[in-house]
């Protein structure tokens, strides 16, 4: 039976009673199949699973969707129960930030200023701050994050290394719907026509990944995106796995962000440049 707690004290008491390897899956709620896959991985690789549900105000910009972000705690707890989660920690804003907005936050560094960071100033500082707090509060041995938010995953891995936090971070491949659309809580904002247009993102990534030369990767992906008028591209980027410059050969990452209507979507895929060994 999944236990739901809302306070630091309740979390500490439950955590003190946990034994074995403890895993955490951090979410902002509105759980979907992608989140559930993270829970399954956590359940398979640990003895005690904590899911956090907190819509973090620090990572939303002034014109973003904090107020309308879906909040479905009862359904989220049901999903956690179905996946065998031991504990759900769902604090409110005052519980997470008892002194108000923190005056000390984490800087994301150069990687936090490109791609999503360039489009959403301050986003990664807010994200890293809450992740660091939740790692401290849950004292998890391992944490699972989805690869759909690839830049987030890369920055969290860098943070735990640079700050000697000690939690092992595991990335889980993106979960997609049958037609290839990456699962996201924001997909619910799309109309039927917009959802069809949004498929251009995954089609472009797949088309690019069929190429093995960096220039042709971007040309192929850009053509698919340009042919869909319902998609306004923010960026299409080819990088190395650490989000540095793309290599001439070897593992790489192709990332895209775009608006479909008023909904901003992101996606990415791994690929290999040059001739395979």
Question: What order do the helices and strands come in, and which of them pair?
Answer:
Layout: E1 3-5, H1 8-17, E2 22-27, H2 33-45, E3 48-53, H3 73-82, E4 87-89, H4 93-96, H5 116-119, H6 123-138, E5 142-146, H7 150-162, E6 168-172, H8 192-209, H9 214-226, E7 231-239, E8 250-260, E9 263-273
Parallel strand pairs: 1-4, 2-3, 2-5, 3-4, 5-6
Antiparallel strand pairs: 7-8, 8-9
Helix pairs in contact: 6-7, 8-9
CATH class of the largest domain: Alpha Beta
The helix-strand sequence is EHEHEHEHHHEHEHHEEE
**Distance between the ends:** 49 Å
Total count of strands:
9
Helix content: 25-40%
Q: CATH topology of the largest domain, what is it called?
A: Rossmann fold
Fraction of residues in β-strands: 15-25%
Low-confidence stretches: none
- Supply the CATH architecture of the largest domain: 3-Layer(aba) Sandwich
CATH-level-4 superfamily name of the largest domain: HUPs
Shape: globular
What topology, given as strand order, has the largest sheet? 1-4-3-2-5-6
> How is the biggest beta sheet arranged?
6 strands, parallel
Please give the domain count.
Answer: 2
In DSSP terms (H or I, runs of 4 or more residues), the helix count works out at: 9
Q: What is the residue-mean pLDDT, rounded to a whole number? A: 96
Q: Please identify the structural class as seen in this structure.
A: alpha/beta
Cα gyration radius (Å): 19 Å
Please give a structural write-up:
The chain is of the alpha/beta class and 277 residues long. The protein is built from nine helices and nine strands. The protein has two domains: 3-172, Rossmann fold, CATH 3.40.50; 185-269, 2-Layer Sandwich (Pantoate--beta-alanine Ligase, Chain: A,domain 2), CATH 3.30.1300. It has a six-stranded parallel β-sheet with strand order 1-4-3-2-5-6, with helices on both faces. Helix 6 crosses helix 7 and helix 8 packs antiparallel against helix 9 (214-226). The mean pLDDT is 96.
